[in-house]
Amino acid sequence: MKVTLIAGSNRTNASSTNLLRYVGYLLEAEDISVHFIDLSKIQLPLFSPDNWDFHSDAKRVLNAIEEGDGLIIATPEYHGSVSGALKNALDYITASQVAGKAVLSVSSAGGPLGVSSLSHLQAIIRNLHGINCSEWISIGYGQNTFDSDGAPLDEGMKERVQKAVNHFVDLTQKLRAAARAEH
């Protein structure tokens, strides 16, 4: 199984990116192939529907999404929504690249929880015909409390993340099997 992870912050050492790296570690521990896209390292041109001859970085992101069996997207919460960098990256995506795939949403907020950004992200995924996981991951107050290996220091957070990842993996496997049975 292949999973594409998109870190939607353009901030160096963002807590949402650190959290997503930990999620990637959990997936790799289960022998799941991970393609990590960090939008702080890939500067995508502003999307325009007038130009479908995409920049090579945009093509790389789209290829990774197409090749993945599932998608995990992390965002900081900015003014109650997803980051501009992530929204721009998502604007490149067409429904054919996400339709029928499991998507897990992850957020980090400066306040108690990033629920607004998660709701917006899930609405975008629904419009792309992706299958939102019923679980999501949100940390608040920029809980940038990770050890040197990238694991959250808070045991409760570790348990919540593991539960959401397990649910995502289960959903992805079921959707993958159903898609193969149709063909």
Automatic annotation (TrEMBL):
Enzyme Commission identifier(s): 1.-.-.-
Protein name as annotated: NADPH-dependent FMN reductase
Family named by the database record: Belongs to the azoreductase type 2 family.
One Pfam family per UniProt: FMN_red
Keyword Mitochondrion found: no
Native source species: Paenibacillus shunpengii
EC supergroup of this enzyme: oxidoreductase
The entry's keywords: Oxidoreductase
Gene3D superfamilies: 3.40.50.360
Domain NADPH-dependent FMN reductase-like span(s) in chain numbering: 1-141
Ribosomal protein in keyword set: no
InterPro entries associated with the record: Flavoprotein-like_sf (IPR029039), FMN_Rdtase-like_dom (IPR005025), NAD(P)H-dep_reductase (IPR050712)
GO molecular function: oxidoreductase activity
Superkingdom of origin: Bacteria
PANTHER family the record matches: CHROMATE REDUCTASE (PTHR30543), NAD(P)H-DEPENDENT FMN REDUCTASE LOT6 (PTHR30543:SF21)
